[in-house]
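Running co-folding for adenosine-5'-triphosphate.
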Amino acid sequence: MQTSHLSVHFADRSALEDVDLQFLAGETTSLVGPNGAGKSTLLKCLAGMLPPTHGAVMLDDRVVDRPNPRVAYVPQRSEVDWKFPINVLDVALMGRSLRSSRVWPVPERDERAGLAALAEVGMHWHAKVQIGALSGGQQQRVFIARALLQQPEVFLLDEPFTGVDAPTQSLVVKILDDLRAAGKTIVFATHDLAMAERSSNICVLLNRRVVAAGPPADVMTVSNLHATFGGAAVSPAMAGARS
Ligand SMILES: Nc1ncnc2c1ncn2[C@@H]1O[C@H](COP(=O)(O)OP(=O)(O)OP(=O)(O)O)[C@@H](O)[C@H]1O
Ligand SMILES: [Mg+2]
């Protein structure tokens, strides 16, 4: 999957400018940048949910201009309406709705697959619970089950490590590692430089434009982090950064 001269403008504000990136099978890419850097905007374009103002997203040789079963998207927690009256199993089963024309009733084998996906993230006991009644980490797990059930080639995750406890973080890391080993393409957004370094093999430093992209150890230099986050914000994060 790749972007070509991708730009997104909202009214008079530019969220992304001329982004050229490539996301390969068997690679995990972290998108790292400050609030408002355009990380979520980029993921939504990759998911086919947001049309670019200029440029394009391509999957193989095709333009991505709508959600595609080959691409799964796990939203940032703050972007989900948690009051929506739907239970955990039905959220997971949304993962199959892009592939299946039959929405209702849910065939039994799909329900079994949904429960199996929930079991992978330790949430099968909560299948009939309203999604809004879960904790943040549990909700995150259910959205990951939804993505697994979709059986996509590309996984897009918006801040999967934010606001979750250590066991959930470890579970997500393990799932992403296994998916990468299975040859999937993974892209996640994060503020956490340590997590980017540990869990991605390509790091994109983003602040409306791509500041740098490459192996985390190469791109996380003091000057690149300054250019991405600005001077004041960098210091605590720079403990592991190279000069
Ligand atoms: N639907 C929208 N309408 C208007 N402006 C928007 C919209 N979505 C995003 N923006 C703006 O685009 C810019 C990038 O937002 P985006 O959500 O992509 O940033 P982000 O890097 O994900 O930030 P955060 O770390 O806070 O999640 C911001 O200035 C934001 O206000
Ligand atoms: Mg965001």
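Result summary
The beta strands are 2-10, 13-22, 28-32, 54-59, 62-63, 71-74, 154-158, 185-190, 202-207, 209-214.
The two ends are 32 Å apart (CA to CA).
Job closed.
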